Automatic annotation (TrEMBL):
Binds 2 calcium ions per subunit. Residues 36-333 form the Plant heme peroxidase family profile domain. Residues 1-25 form the signal peptide. One of its GO terms (molecular function) is lactoperoxidase activity. It catalyses: 2 a phenolic donor + H2O2 = 2 a phenolic radical donor + 2 H2O. Its main location: secreted. Belongs to the peroxidase family. Classical plant (class III) peroxidase subfamily. Its EC number is 1.11.1.7. Removal of H(2)O(2), oxidation of toxic reductants, biosynthesis and degradation of lignin, suberization, auxin catabolism, response to environmental stresses such as wounding, pathogen attack and oxidative stress. These functions might be dependent on each isozyme/isoform in each plant tissue. It comes from the Eukaryota. Ca(2+) 2 binds at residues 253, 256, 261. This is Peroxidase. Gene3D superfamilies: 1.10.520.10, Peroxidase, domain 2.
Amino acid sequence: MGSKSLFFFAVLSISLAFSPPPAFAENEEITGTDPGLVMNFYKDSCPQAEDIIKEQVKLLYKRHKNTAFSWLRNIFHDCAVQSCDASLLLDSTRRSLSEKETDRSFGLRNFRYLDTIKEAVERECPGVVSCSDILVLSARDGIVSLGGPYIPLKTGRRDGRKSRAEILEEYLPDHNESMSVVLDRFSAIGINTPGVVALLGAHSVGRTHCVKLVHRLYPEVDPELNPDHVEHMLHKCPDAIPDPKAVQYVRNDRGTPMVLDNNYYRNILDNKGLLIVDHQLAADKRTKPYVKKMAKSQDYFFKEFGRAITILSENNPLTGTKGEIRKQCSVVNKHN
Ligand code: HEM
Ligand SMILES: *[C@@H]1O[C@H](CO)[C@@H](O)[C@H](O)[C@H]1NC(C)=O
């Protein structure tokens, strides 16, 4: 390099080092407009938001107890699929299939009551509170209605603009998935083995339709099932191919079907788990020690459950200026 070009190089690198960042590089980190998820994100923009949601969850629970099951299941089906962005709530359009209509979403219900909550919030603070925060906070308050722990959760999520139906199966395990796959999927979002064992405790409430069970009953009965429970299952699911129009199902926890408690763990240790994943949880040597510990201690179950729900609820959210605040939870906003 000659001295002339060396001089030129020096001037160039100095001017590069001191030039201000170009305007288009202006981002949230620099301007500080994105606090990410925080406790009580709406304290200035809509101070009543969390109270309205809590009130609505309570009112709905009084009228339809199973709404709380739905709020709990929603947090898994939305947040475990790449992001807590309320993509789960979008309806199908001419161009895209909704997540709700995929096979993994079978049995999800009560979406219209989530709209009820959103409408109540919109009446007070139009266009401020995201559907994804409503989905997460309704799960938090639904867990309390079911007798579970109160889990403080952050807010500030924004809503996505697309369905994730086409990649859903890569994230949500099937009812008959191996424990290795289940543990891998959750570990990819930071949830460890006791966390997975605690989350599956959600199957202490609600129901499972016969279509998800009949392969354990017909053509022959899964020998791992408890014979006492088989009798009940056959009674509830009398056909190898369930009539799709008849709503045939078995309650997840016959003992305390409406309460989120550690009875689930005693059931699965007793070979009364309905799904193959439930049964595997109690059989696999990686998960069984935690199943036993949670069967003995409700406190331990709740502690791990709270920790895992928190991680799940913070999975890769849209914050700051990303995404949007949907006006209606089942459709993306127009003109955007
Ligand atoms: C390996 C993971 C999981 C699998 C394969 C799985 C699968 C299923 C299936 C097949 C049903 C029955 C649906 C029906 O027939 O109506 C169900 C119900 C349910 N699941 Fe899961 N689930 C898993 C994890 C979770 C997690 C992590 C949660 C929440 C934290 C959850 C919450 C629920 C609830 C509350 C119900 C009852 C819903 C109702 O009665 O409406 N599940 N699950
Ligand atoms: C799991 O069950 C589905 C039907 O729900 C079936 O198509 C699939 O082959 C099963 N997978 C395994 C690994 O058994």
